[in-house]
């Protein structure tokens, strides 16, 4: 008869260690059970010299959540730490309470566990309360960086891109405008306004007067004499052209001081040019 070997029981698979979900301190205050949520990222307080009248130790329980297909359970593990989370001393007629973590008094934590009860118990029978923060508080830039590091990284990257973009151009951006065709009258009007603004009307009139004088000298002598506008026989020119002496002086010698003088001189010069270029046959130079 052959003995049958006993079947070995399969070894149970090790259960994966879940991450701790919360840390809770449990204690009795005035015979009332109190549970406080604990922050794992703080340094506990140590006593030196004077003994505290009331203390809350740092020992706490880590609660683990186990979520399986069959059931959802929770287990806890006791953690013992050397240090205190709260110390209260009697100083003169008052008391001073030192906490290693102020998160339990924040607005988003005061409604969790028994935080509100602890705050009311600490402030019992107190006519005045002063809240003093640590003297070695972290600088504001450090707090802002810890609050939202991604936002500040995005802001710095955006600032660098803007500076890089600004270095790629200088001055205002040129825009291609639509070409507008100007007619001759608009060009003449614009040239006149430009000359008047530069106070070049006197030089323009002087050039026209020299041209008139040169034309009259050619008709009389057959050549240019190089005379100035004031060096001519006004009476001879008036007699030969039929223009009055007043009109002749307006055309050749009037000083331009305003718009009306410019208009009078231009009209007189235009009439003198027409008379020099044509007119009655008895008026021509022979």
What does this protein structure show overall?
With 286 residues, the protein is α+β, with helices and mostly antiparallel strands. It folds into two domains: 20-134, no CATH class; 196-283, no CATH class. Helices cover 36% and strands 18% of the residues. The chain is built from eight helices and seven strands. The strands form two sheets. It has a four-stranded antiparallel β-sheet. Strands 3-6-7 form a three-stranded antiparallel β-sheet, with no helix packed on it. Strand 1 and strand 2 form a beta hairpin. Helix 5 (201-221) packs parallel to helix 8 (259-277). It starts with 19 loop residues before the first strand and ends in a 9-residue tail after the last helix.
The residue fraction in helices comes out at: 25-40%
**Anisotropy-based shape:** rod-shaped
Number of helical regions = 8
The helix/strand order is EEEEEEEHHHHHHHH
Unreliable runs, pLDDT <50, ≥5 residues?
280-286
Number of strands: 7
Q: Give the end-to-end Cα distance, rounded to a whole number of Å.
A: 168 Å
Tell me, rounded to a whole number, the average pLDDT: 76
- Describe the largest sheet: 4 strands, antiparallel
Oligomerization status of the protein chains: single chain
Report the radius of gyration as a whole number of Å: 54 Å
Strand order of the largest sheet: 2-1-4-5
């Amino acid at each position: 008869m052959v003995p049958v070997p006993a079947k070995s029981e399969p070894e149970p698979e090790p259960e994966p260690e879940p991450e701790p979900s919360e840390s809770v301190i449990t204690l009795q205050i005035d015979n009332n059970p109190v549970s406080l949520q604990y922050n794992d990222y703080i340094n506990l307080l140590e006593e030196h010299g004077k003994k505290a009248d009331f203390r809350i130790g740092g020992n706490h329980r880590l609660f683990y959540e186990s979520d399986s297909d069959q059931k959802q359970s929770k287990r806890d593990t006791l953690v013992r730490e050397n240090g205190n989370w709260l110390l209260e001393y009697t100083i003169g007629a008052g008391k001073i309470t030192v906490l290693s973590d102020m998160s339990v008094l924040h607005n988003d934590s005061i409604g969790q566990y028994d935080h509100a009860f602890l705050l009311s118990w600490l402030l019992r029978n107190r006519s005045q309360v002063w809240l003093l923060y640590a003297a070695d508080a972290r600088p504001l830039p450090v707090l802002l960086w810890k609050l939202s590091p991604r936002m500040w990284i995005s802001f710095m990257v955006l600032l660098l891109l803007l500076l890089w973009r600004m270095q790629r151009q200088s001055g205002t951006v040129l825009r291609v405008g639509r070409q507008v065709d100007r007619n001759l009258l608009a060009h003449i009007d614009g040239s006149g306004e430009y000359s008047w603004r530069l106070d070049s009307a006197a030089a323009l009139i002087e050039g026209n007067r020299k041209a008139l004088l040169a034309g009259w000298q050619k008709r009389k002598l057959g050549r240019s004499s190089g005379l100035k506008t004031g060096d001519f026989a006004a009476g001879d020119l008036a007699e030969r052209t039929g223009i009055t002496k007043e009109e002749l002086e307006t055309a050749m010698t009037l000083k331009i001081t305003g718009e009306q003088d410019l208009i009078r001189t231009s009209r007189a010069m235009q009439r003198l040019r027409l008379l020099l270029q044509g007119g009655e046959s008895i008026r021509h130079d022979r």
